[in-house]
Amino acid sequence: MTAVELLQRAHDLGLQLEPRTGGWLAVRPASKLPPDLAAALRRHKTEVISLLSLMVPARKGWQSVPPGDLPLVPLKPHPTPVQQKMVIANVATSNSAHG
Predict the structure, then answer these.
(1) Which of 18, 55, 57, 89 could form a disulfide with 26 if both were Cys (CB 3.0 to 4.6 A apart)?
(2) Can you tell me the distance from the alpha carbon of 47 to that of 98, in angstroms, rounded to the nearest whole number?
(3) Whose CA is closest to 3, among 60, 41, 57, 55?
(4) Which of 45-49, 62-66, 86-90, 92-96 has the highest mean pLDDT?
(5) Do the Cβ atoms of 49 and 41 come closer than 8 Å?
(6) What angle do CA 6, 45, 33 make, to 5 degrees?
(7) DSSP one-letter string for the chain
(8) pTM of the predicted model, to two decimals?
């Protein structure tokens, strides 16, 4: 399989692939990763990571450690009543899906 075919198969299975620092490849959810696809991704990891890096533009500062002297301003959110209802509905829906 080519790197493009591997990415397509992962997509078809509902998997998300993300290159990580140090040459790692994160696969989510890992529980849905078939052993044969895992082996193929290991064999073609370099090509898959290169392809993913081309597809996802690098974000400056993404996954970097902020400086120790970064001032953090503790701002409290002030949602509108409509936003509060949306959050409550989202939490209720999420809890019913997991319970």
Answers:
(1) 18
(2) 36
(3) 41
(4) 45-49
(5) no
(6) 55
(7) --HHHHHHHHHHTT-EEEEETTTEEEEESGGG--HHHHHHHHHTHHHHHHHHHHHS---TTTTPPPPTT-----PPP---HHHHHHHHHHHHHHHHHH-
(8) 0.56
Tokens for 83, please give them: 């936003």
* Helix 45-55 / helix 3-12 crossing angle, nearest 10 deg: 70
Q: Which two tokens stand for residue 67?
A: 């400086």
pLDDT tens digits for range 14-33: 999 988 888 899 999 999 99
What are the phi and psi torsion angles at 20 (to 5°)?
Answer: -125, 160
Tokens of 9: 């198969």
**Structural domain spans, the chain:** 3-55
- Measured between alpha carbons, how far is 52 from 23 in angstroms, rounded to an integer? 12
Q: Establish how many alpha carbons lie within 13 A of residue 52's alpha carbon, considering only the half-sphere containing its beta carbon.
A: 23
